[in-house]
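Design job #97: recover the sequence.
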């Protein structure tokens, strides 16, 4: 928020940025918890449902609507990177999902940070969205370690 305030964004943009930041930063943490993993990866929650959760994250378009300098091209590019990454992660065998998710997140973050123009105050947006969805939401929890370590 401090970056958005410092950038002189209008009140509506500040409000939307605050909501998006709360959702993404909080969601990145919550989606990594064992409780969230049990909820999202339990019986009857397959790839279609996971992809639906990712597709429902339309925050790039909300930002394009109200944040000066966050254009529709940036919104489409970031949304496309996230959805494409999710499709790739969900297309591979469960055994490969973790390394593929990290590869997709790393590559998409690099593309977003170097080839997509957004206001400097929102440079965090694409990487945090990718972490929340590709690493937090799409990856199931790990089995508890043996031997108490």
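Job complete. Output follows.
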């Amino acid at each position: 928020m401090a970056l958005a305030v410092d950038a002189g964004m209008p009140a509506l943009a500040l409000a939307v940025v605050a909501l998006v930041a709360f959702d993404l930063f909080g969601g990145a943490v919550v989606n990594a918890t064992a409780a969230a993993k049990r909820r999202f990866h339990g019986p009857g929650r397959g790839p279609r449902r996971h992809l639906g959760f990712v597709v429902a994250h339309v925050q790039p378009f909300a930002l394009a609507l109200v944040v000066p300098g966050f254009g529709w091209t940036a919104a489409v590019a970031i949304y496309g990177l996230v959805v494409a990454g999710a499709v790739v992660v969900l297309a591979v065998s469960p055994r490969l999902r973790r390394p593929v998710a990290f590869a997709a997140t790393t590559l998409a973050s690099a593309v977003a940070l170097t080839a997509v123009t957004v206001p400097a105050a929102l440079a965090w947006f694409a990487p945090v969205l990718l972490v929340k969805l590709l690493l937090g939401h799409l990856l199931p929890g790990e089995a508890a370690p043996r031997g108490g370590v």
